[in-house]
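Chapter review. Work through the record for Methyltransferase FkbM domain-containing protein before attempting the end-of-chapter questions.
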Amino acid sequence: MLQFIYLVATILLSLVSAPCQACWKPAVNFKGPSVAIDPFGCNPERAKLQVKNFISQLKRRRHSSACAEHWWIGNLAELKAKAKEQQTTIADIGCNKAYFSATALNYLAPGYGNHLQLFYKVHEARGVYEKPCGGCNECLQETPSRIVGSQATVDVFCFEPSEIHGTSLTQARDALYGPPDSTSKPAGKETKVNFHITQAAVSNFSGIARFPVNCTGNICSLADKDQQTQEVKITTVDDLMRSRGLAYLDVLKIDTEGFDPAVLAGAYESLANQRVGLLSFEYHKLWNQSGSTLKQCVHYLDDLGYSCYYDGPVLAKVSGSCWKDAYEIRRWSNIVCVRRGTGMEKELYAGSYLASAKGKTDRRKAKNLKTSKIG
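Structure tokens for Methyltransferase FkbM domain-containing protein:
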């Protein structure tokens, strides 16, 4: 009998420690709120034209979405400046070398210089990285030409399970911004950057899992079984929001090397309650590990009131009536989603193939759309 109980306990523990294999599916069949009505859908002709333009763009520039520069963060900064909002909160899940957060800080806290290059200098100096500049050579990006002003406070919550990355991030954070619990801004800076670093993975459950010990690359994940591993804590976005007392995330970025759908499932309550303005996640062939498809995740987010686009120089909308199976490309790329009924919904639409296809008429429609919040 004792042997049987031990066997059952071992099986249950293994289930808790393993990532979900149907991670995109929420526990509750949530029906989207009234704000989820999409004012910028596609008719069959526009949907067909958009996917044609998108595929053509990928042929011309293979990494146009994979190495997207997230220009829409500048639009968010501009809207916040116009509304005189002085605080921005970012959750960076799968922080890695923090180049996404650094890109955002270039718009939101420009007084420090080029945050991408500042982080790069610390990573390079440690001498542990084969490619310290990033998979897309992010360290070579220049500061944005369009800067509208600084936020008073930017809170970044960086979750990174790699101990090696965490050490570099901490060194960079302390040198650039100081500890996040400090009440004063660095001398001569307009923005107080509170850069919180947590060595943990994020998924659709809270508990313990194993992660590679010597991870210095960009594609380490919970699925790596052939390397030496160590225990790391796992949490969810919903638990993060509760434990940190966060009411709202302006930007939720996810890059977990194939387990992004699991993180989306673990953000269910936050998304269902419209507590995330913008959502950016990575999509590629590693999604096979979570048993998910882009179509499933896009429809999940659509029901929760979010419109999604392929990120890139020009956005391609993939939500609702705009979806085509040709978008299931299983290639390294980025998706950006926006809460409907917000100012940022207009901004993303205006930067999409749909707006350029219909011209000024649709751009005026976007401009005049009534919204409740920035993003």
